[in-house]
Amino acid sequence: MRRPLYKESGSLAWPALWFFGYLSFVAWCAADEEMRRRIGLFIVFCGAVLLCFLIPVLGSLHVFFFHRIRLTKSVLRVGFQRIPVSEIDPGSVAEEQEFLADLHRGPGPPIVRSERETMTRRRLHREGRALFVGGSWAIPLGRTAVVVALRSGEPVQIASRDPLAFIAALAMLTGAGATAAPVAPPATSPPPVADGVTG
Predict the structure, then answer these.
(1) What 3-state class would DSSP assign to 64?
(2) How far is it, in rounded angstroms, from Cα 72 to Cα 76?
(3) Which end of the chain is less congested by CB atoms within 10 angstroms, N or C?
(4) What is the CA angle 23-26-28, rounded to 5?
């Protein structure tokens, strides 16, 4: 199996902890003589607690199965879905990388804010019609949507725990920054000539 260049995986530790905690709670209730005599109350009480346990358990399982990310040189796998890296549009990756970096950059001069607002409107428009990758239906808590487009023009969004690192790895594989123009070195002025010195 190829070693991934980028990876995000969920954990089953919390569901296992909740499961054994619930079993311990049921065993404790079953050991109580009053609870055993009131079997109806016992069933209702354990059912109510089970519902409270299911909320965090289902959230952890949702992340584990639908939001696992594995990025290799040729394939991006999210949950149960695979996307060939060659099908991802490098231009959309570069735009998303700039957008995410700009979010962490903070406010700037008015002209920069104007450019940011334009880019944000374009991104929100794309996100509004982007499909979730991996079989999920929502972005879980603690994760950020990374929105890119396929070469067919179809936008997709991926939930990432570290969106900057993920989009950087994706940009490296798709060559999103390969066509960036090099920055010219600053011009240097000749050293000043001392007064009274002639050639």
Answers:
(1) helix
(2) 6
(3) C
(4) 110
Angle at 54 between CA 49 and CA 59, to 5 degrees: 150
Residue 198: its pLDDT value, please?
Answer: 45
Residue 40 CB neighbour total at 10 angstroms: 7
Please tell me the distance from the alpha carbon of residue 195 to that of residue 199, in angstroms, as a whole number: 12
Position 99 scores a pLDDT of: 86
Q: Using a cut of 0.85, tell me whether the model's pTM lies above it.
A: no
In the chain, the amino acid numbered 66 is F
Position of tokens 């209702």? 44
What whole-number distance in Å separates Cα of residue 157 and Cα of residue 148?
6
Span 14-70, pLDDT tens digits: 777 777 887 887 887 778 777 667 777 778 877 887 887 777 777 777 777 888 899
